[in-house]
Amino acid sequence: MRQISNSLLSSGVELRVIAIETKKHPIVPSAEFTNYKENTNFESVFVNTNITIPKIVKSLLGKRSIHANRFYSKKMNERLKTLFSHEPFDVVIFESIFTGAYIPTVRKYSKARIIMRIHNIEHLIWRRLALQEKNLLKKLFFYSVASSLKRFECSLFKKIDGYIPITEVDNFYFSQQFPTLCGQVIPFGIDIKEYHYEKGELPTEPISFFHIGSMNWQPNKEGICWFLDNIWEKATAKYPNITLVLAGKGNAELFKSRTLKNVKVYDFVEDAQQFIKEHDIMLVPLLSGSGMRIKIMEGMALGKPIITTSIGAEGISVKDKENILIADSPEAMLDLLFFCIEHPEKCEEIGRNARQLIEDRYTQEKISKDLIAFLNTIKSTI
User: Fold this and answer.
1) DSSP string covering 262-284
2) Which CATH class, in words, describes the domain spanning 2-189+364-379?
3) Residue 305 belongs to what H/E stretch?
4) Per-residue confidence (pLDDT) for residue 61, from 0 to 100
5) Domain segments of the chain: what residues?
């Protein structure tokens, strides 16, 4: 969301950002945020997104998705009423479907065109989780969540003027469902100047594999647990000096009761980019999920070789064995770990090619031009 804001600002757009602040995602003051706040006329409204019994009952009675309904608040709705009653806008971008509950308010009080920024296909994430789940009750619950989210997602597409998915996969799905609605793929863009990379840096001995991501996101938790249960012990049996470093919110709590050989766990790292630079090979063993993995994009921008699954690589124009390494079974992923350990020069080449792909296709400059062109098209239909 910061990236799309910066893309608009760099193109001379007058921008206002209103955000939902939550207990999980509070406003954290910093010099960078102060500058961003001034440039975007930023303001936020706190919303309690905790799932409570009354919210569950209300959602069930109204046949609405509890996961979407928890982002709605009367306070935010009143603020939007006031804002759109007094200020004119050309276009309003809703970031993710979870802001979609406020679309009727904007439509009522503004003549602006409404665009939905699609981060992923939310119901597909839960459907994939259901397919992987072995516990019957959890499986049924995940399918129920997927069904309610699908209804919610599809209902939003009947209320908007256009949509901006970040992957071709997501665009294909929604274009099939809503063929007359205007859509344009605008992937995540990298400000390449912020990602310093030096060619020729080989993985160092002993090689460190790493994963960075919140364990509060179910697909991350599922993927890393799968990796630890099926792959890591076999890898260390053959190469006892290798290490695995896990970083991200919830890691310490999740793994506190597990004895893990050659594994370091960090709940928080001060600088994510520096953390990526300090380690050798990125692991993204996703078995579910949807959309585009931003951390993979950042790892590629820093020239890191990345081992992931087909779902992890989904939405990025990568080629296996050329600029990324893809495996979908424990045996295949274990082979890739061995390959990286035994062929450091090839790893460096894959990382170098990954960086080149970002420079060729995913820079913020290119993304900004495509975004503005699409918004001008939508605006011209007013």
Assistant:
1) TEEEES--S-HHHHHHHSSEEEE
2) alpha beta
3) none
4) 56
5) 2-189+364-379, 193-361
Q: What CA–CA distance (Å, rounded) separates 321 from 336?
A: 10
Please state whether 20 falls in left (phi above 0), alpha (psi between -120 and 50) or beta.
beta
**∠254-27-217 over CA atoms, to 5°?**
30
pLDDT at residue number 57: 63
Tell me the C-alpha distance between 224 and 292, whole Å: 18
Q: Which pLDDT does position 51 carry in this prediction? A: 75
List, in order, residues 6 or more apart from 342 with CB less than 8 Å away.
Answer: none
How many CB atoms lie under 10 A from the CB of residue 78? 12
Q: Which CATH number fits domain 193-361: 1.25.40.10, 3.40.50.2000, 3.40.30.10, 3.40.50.150?
A: 3.40.50.2000
Neighbours of 23 (CB within 10 A): 10
Token digits for 297?
Answer: 């994009």
CA-to-CA distance for 218 and 215, rounded, in angstroms?
7
Residues of the chain under the 70 pLDDT cut = 54-64, 381-382
pLDDT reported for residue 205: 77
Would you tell me how many other CB atoms lie within 10 Å of the CB of residue 163? 23
